[in-house]
Write a structure and sequence with these properties.
heterodimer; A: mainly alpha; two-stranded antiparallel ribbon; B: 531 residues; alpha/beta; six-stranded mixed β-sheet
Chain lengths: 366, 531
């Protein structure tokens, strides 16, 4: 009897405190940030547009105005979720990584190699996804090991490795993937078996949706329910403490960056096999960096990453639609996006302000 | 300035108090740090303020020094009602403060530090010679000498403390507040600090002396004010009370002033350290060929002034730092090249000296920190997953067993008080059933009751036959707990004494200062002799 009661108590305790301390307040903050961002967007369109109402309407209702735009929104959210998950892993280990871009590119390249060069068979796309995860992992091992064992600065090394990844990708695309005599720098379209199955009818997306949902659960379980994730979080909280309880902190560091690469890599696989259906130049479009924003919004909590990704991609698609359907020019859209990013990240402001006050207070009063 | 001169001209009359607080209260949110405190400090007296951690001592001192404004209450300095809004006000009123953690610029000379912020200058130019003369004469007029030209970073802790005192005197402080001034000093240094304090009193200064150490309070103070839970319990004449009385007043119940040290005979060797040489981060040999043996059921105390290699020594035994040469044996197994986790598995546990930064992760939850060292092994790991049920069960058991005050094992560790954080660390390390427990400063910064609890826990653990290496800067604690005391000086063991009634603490102090050392053959015999 007692053990059953204890078990129930245990479950209640667990439900009470899911990973992040207060998921609800995080969501409230995100919503507030979005509303404030919208206000500024409106003010900007008032100034620059002949027909501000129209432009703003395009921005607000754009993503849900047509089935194909809803599809775009969902597809964007899937990729942002994968990238946000990738970043949340490194952030929870208290590392910093700008390397998701390069990992994504390698993931796309691996998926492309599998889809184009393996004989087509049913389920080829699954092999492609696995290959993209492995490629992302390997491209994460490199900066991880550099940081853990040689003490290199992970910000510099991950950023630089992105450029290397882009160059390798372009070289291979032009010399191996591009069919001879093609007029554009593109690979062939992947065979049907090498494409992610399509889900839905009018509003549709790829099987990437399932991959993303699984990934959220896997990352959450890994971080909060396995010894590996436990070690990673403890090391992220306090490296000295981690050393004292006998963790191999160096291993945690490089593994966190490598495991993060798995999810960024799969994101590249989804882009290649589910979105572009072939390898194209600049396949990421700088999207990998948006993963950092998504992860910050979700306070590195994997369960909140999809929420943040859906909200953020709505704004991305909205800005896109506004550019295409109104007289608001591309530059303004970029300004608008920057403002959105500011407002979405500004929710960290109260904390920063408190810190500053504390500092100023302490200084003055000493 | 005028106010101060007026105050001093008044101060000859007998019934004037240097400082008088009436009904002072201060709350931080829901926490009432000070409640209706009345305090009267007579002119020319040494007034000790004692209390457990969290009793409100530091808040009270901050109110007096103007860094915190009270919510209500009256302050009188030299008989005049005043409002102290900043430390500048306090200095103007002749109040000086020596903080526990010094506020000196390490790269400036002693003289420069003393005058910093109030430099004597001529047409805006500093005059090094004048400054040195001023500081020299100031020091000698109070009977203590400091090397005015030396850089502060080259000074010992006790010398730095003198510089801090000189700083306040230079600013013409007549009321000095010393916050835990003896925490970092050896017995000899404490004695000479007391000489200085008495000399200051003779010269017409008033001193407020904050301390945990009741024996010292008894020795130096004229009157003692006891704070408990933010209220002042009483003020007593030091002559009329015993340290035990003060302890009872502080805790509000009678405390065991003695713990019972086990007299069981130490048996097997648990850990042998042989000719261990360890380098510091700066690649200096800070531990030089140290050999020590720790037996089952024995507490080996390690005494030494901070910075003599003891922290590097224990880090090396625990595996956080690799030795340059030498060997470490645990139960006859050579563990010199083992990692921390391997050593933990073989039975070494470590209570680190800086618990908040190394012993816990403040953002992590209590149950996570309690079991952090064994999450990867059964029963807490089931295949590739953590067994939340087993973890919760064990965590609750430990919380109960060690009396950790918390609403839930899911609260972050940072929400606990210092004493409870220490209990979390104690619970984790003792419950790992080690063979060798390295306990560094196990009671630093915790109150009397928590210290007593820790002491009893360590002695309980001892009965299970482990060996304890105890590193502490509190000599009283060492004498209370240790079976043998080893003294480390400049990276070498200079003496090993059996702890027996009537042990000469002064002699231990001389060893710590490097004035004296035991004969090498005697040392070797003491070191390896099985008790």
């Amino acid at each position: 009897m007692t053990s059953i009661r204890l078990k129930i108590q245990q479950i209640i305790d667990n439900v009470k405190t899911l990973p992040s301390n207060d998921s609800f307040s995080v969501i409230v903050k995100v919503v507030l940030a979005v509303l404030l961002g919208l206000l500024i967007v409106y003010l900007v369109t008032l100034v620059v547009s002949e027909n501000p109402q129209e432009a703003f309407k395009a921005f607000i209702t754009g993503p849900i105005s047509q089935p194909n735009r809803i599809s775009d929104w969902i597809t964007d959210a899937i990729n942002l979720t994968m990238l946000g998950l990738a970043i949340s892993i490194v952030f929870q280990a208290n590392q910093f990584s700008l390397g998701a871009e390069g990992q994504l590119i390698f993931g796309a390249m691996a998926a492309g190699a599998v889809a184009l060069f393996l004989p087509p068979f049913t389920g080829l796309f699954i092999v492609g996804l696995i290959a993209s995860g492995v490629a992302g992992f390997l491209w994460g091992v490199l900066p991880g090991v550099l940081k853990a064992y040689l003490g290199s600065d992970e910000i510099v090394s991950t950023l630089m490795l992105n450029f290397i990844a882009v160059q390798i990708y372009d070289f291979l695309l032009q010399n191996f993937f591009m069919p001879p005599g093609a007029g554009a720098i593109l690979s062939d379209v992947f065979p049907a078996q090498g494409l992610l199955p399509v889900l839905g009818g009018k509003v549709r997306t790829s099987a990437g949706l399932i991959v993303a949902v699984l990934a959220v659960i896997i990352v959450w379980a890994m971080l909060y329910r396995t010894p590996y994730g436990f070690n990673l979080r403890m090391s992220g909280f306090n490296e000295k403490f981690a050393q004292h309880i006998g963790l191999n902190v160096k291993q945690v560091i490089w593994l966190s960056m490598a495991v993060s690469g798995i999810f960024a890599g799969i994101s590249g696989g989804i882009l290649a096999m589910g979105v572009h259906t072939r390898l194209v130049q600049r396949i990421s479009g700088g999207m990998a960096f948006e993963g950092i924003i998504v992860s910050m919004l979700a306070q590195n909590n994997p369960l909140l990453v999809p929420v943040a990704a859906v909200a953020y991609s709505y704004l991305r698609i909205g800005a896109d639609v506004m550019e295409r359907t109104s007289d608001v020019s591309r530059e303004i859209v970029i300004v608008v996006q920057a403002i959105m990013i500011l407002f979405l990240t500004v929710q960290a402001l109260p904390r920063i302000r408190n810190l500053r006050l504390k500092y100023a207070f302490g200084r003055k009063k000493m | 300035m005028k106010l101060r001169d007026a105050a001093f001209s008044n101060s000859s009359s007998e019934d004037v108090f240097a400082l008088k607080l009436q009904g002072v209260s201060k709350s931080y949110g829901n926490v009432r740090a000070n409640r209706n405190i009345n305090l009267s400090v007579r002119k020319d007296e040494i007034h000790a303020i004692v209390g457990e951690n969290g009793a409100g001592k530091s808040t009270l001192m901050k109110i007096i020094y103007g860094t915190v404004e009270p919510d209500s209450g009256r302050l009188e300095v030299w008989g005049k009602p005043v409002q102290i809004r900043s430390s500048l006000d306090a200095i103007r009123l002749g109040i000086g403060m020596v903080f526990q953690h010094f506020t000196l610029a390490p790269n400036l000379t002693v003289a420069e530090n003393v005058v910093l912020g109030a430099e004597p200058s001529r047409f805006g130019w500093l005059q090094a010679k004048t400054i040195e003369d001023v500081v020299n004469s100031l020091g000698s007029s109070f009977g203590f000498h400091v090397p005015t030209k030396a850089l502060v970073r080259d000074l010992s802790v006790s010398q730095q403390q003198r510089v801090e005192i000189l700083k306040t005197l230079y600013r013409r402080a007549k009321l000095l507040i010393l916050d835990e001034p003896t925490a970092v000093l050896t017995p000899q240094e404490t004695e000479s600090l007391f000489d200085i304090i008495r000399k200051l009193r003779a010269e017409g200064h008033t001193i407020i002396f904050i301390s945990h150490k009741l024996l010292e309070v008894k020795a130096i103070a004229d009157r003692i004010t006891v704070l408990r839970q933010g209220e002042n319990v009483t003020t007593v004449d030091a002559e009329n009370v015993t340290p035990a009385d003060i302890a009872n007043l502080m805790v509000g119940r009678s405390v065991l002033s003695k713990v019972t040290r086990s007299s069981s005979k130490p048996k097997e060797k648990v850990c042998e350290i042989k000719d261990l040489t360890v380098l510091s981060d700066a690649k200096n040999e800070v531990v030089k060929k140290i050999s020590l043996t720790i037996h089952e059921g024995e507490i080996l105390g390690l005494a030494g002034v901070e910075g003599n290699g003891q922290s590097q020594l224990i880090e090396c035994i625990f595996g956080l730092r690799s030795p340059k040469s030498g060997r470490i044996l645990l139960k006859n197994c050579d563990i010199t090249s083992y990692s921390v986790s391997q050593r933990r598995r073989l039975g070494i546990a470590f209570i680190p000296p800086d618990r908040r930064t190394s012993g816990v992760a403040e953002q992590a939850k209590i149950f996570e920190v309690l079991l952090a060292d064994r999450m990867s092994s059964p029963p807490f790991r089931k295949r590739m997953f953590l067994d939340q049920f087993q973890i919760g069960l064990k965590a609750k058991e430990l919380i109960k067993e060690f009396g950790i005050k918390t609403s839930s094992p899911n609260s972050p560790v940072g929400s606990l008080s210092g004493g409870n954080i220490q209990k979390v660390v104690l619970a984790r390390e003792i419950s790992s059933n080690p063979k060798l427990l390295i306990a560094a400063e196990p009671t630093r910064g915790v109150d009397v009751a928590a210290a007593e609890f820790a002491h009893n826990r360590l002695l309980d653990a001892l009965k299970q036959g482990l060996g304890i290496l105890l590193l502490t800067s509190d000599l009283d604690e060492l004498v209370l707990l240790a079976n043998r005391i080893a003294v480390i000086y400049k990276g070498q063991i200079v003496a090993i004494e059996k702890n027996r009634p009537g042990l000469d603490l002064k002699q231990i102090g001389r060893y710590m200062m490097g004035v004296d050392r035991q004969d090498a053959s005697l040392l070797a015999q003491q070191g390896f002799e099985s008790l």
